[in-house]
Design a protein that fits this description.
CATH architecture of the largest domain: Roll
Strand order of the largest sheet: 1-2-3-6-7-8-9-12
Distance between the termini: 29 Å
Largest sheet: 8 strands, antiparallel
Low-confidence stretches: none
Length: 284
């Protein structure tokens, strides 16, 4: 049991310059007994309101240096403070505020909401067990207008989809990765590097791009790029929800539409998912 959607803004001031972190926290506990479920005995139950207050107090006292470190702080607090807690899991996602720039100059206290993917993390801690840290990005919408196709797929009497060698590839990406042994490393730097890998693998070189024969191959390319360049990552779960665009037929308007005007297909939409990891981690 636990407390969901604990939302708050943490404001940090360094002189005139301000820093913000707005987050949503979900924290859940498992106790060493189940008396509250079986007998209605609540003597070991930590109220969810108390859970919420602890999260807010930790934010006040420790700040939020990184999402991952804040989640670690929450888990460690419950494990070390309450002997009846056997397991704690904390999920945190960040509201994408970015510092506002005016003529290239960073503003000291103004920010803009930029929906270019939502950062999140998840930390689990068992009593006398290892600390498990995962992180990720979700709701990241990506598009390329060429260098994508879908050909040579299986066909039968129910197939109506034509083959395409040049199409718009667009999707909403969810990517979650697990770290190995939680050593002391820079979570912010690592997250930013992984995000760069995602964009690089999706788009290809800036002057020419890279051909994608399918959404599935694009997902695999993203995962392979991350594993090859970020040694801290051990396993990656990726889901790409496809967003389709159809070319508008303008023949009745006496116009030729060479993929210049397209409309999005709201539903249904496709989706592909893959989990990829290093062999030693998967075997463990």
């Amino acid at each position: 049991y636990g407390k969901n959607t604990i939302k708050f803004l943490r404001l940090h001031r360094e002189g005139k310059k301000h820093f913000v972190k707005e987050v949503e926290v979900c924290t859940h506990l498992r106790l060493t007994s189940a008396h509250e479920y079986l007998d209605g005995n609540n003597s070991c139950v930590i109220p969810t309101d108390t859970i919420k207050n602890i999260v807010l107090v930790l934010a006040k006292k420790n700040g939020i240096p990184t999402l991952e470190q804040f989640a670690i702080d929450i888990c460690k607090h419950f494990i070390t403070t309450f002997c009846q807690v056997a397991y704690v899991k904390t999920y945190i996602q960040e509201v994408p505020w970015q510092r506002l720039h005016e003529n290239g100059v960073p503003h000291i206290h103004s920010f803009i909401y930029v929906p270019d993917g939502i950062r999140f993390c998840e930390v689990e801690q068992c009593r006398n067990g290892p600390l498990v840290v995962s992180a990720g990005i979700k709701d990241l919408k990506l598009m390329k207008t060429t260098q994508s196709g879908f050909e040579g797929f299986y066909k039968n009497e129910h197939t109506t989809l034509p083959e395409r060698h040049d199409r718009v590839l667009c999707g909403e990406l969810f990517c979650k990765w697990s770290y190995g042994e939680c050593r002391d490393f820079d979570f912010d730097c690592t997250w930013n590097k992984i995000r760069e890998c995602i964009l690089e693998a999706f788009a290809g070189p800036p002057d020419c791009g890279e051909y994608s024969p399918s959404y599935q191959k694009t997902v695999n390319s993203i995962q392979m790029c991350i594993l090859s360049k970020v040694s801290q990552v051990q396993i990656i779960e990726t889901i790409l929800n496809n967003i389709y665009y159809n070319v508008v037929d303008m023949k009745n308007l006496c116009l030729t539409n060479d993929k210049e005007v397209l409309v999005p297909v709201e539903a249904p939409y496709g989706s592909c998912a893959c989990t990829l990891g290093r062999k030693k981690f998967l075997e463990a």
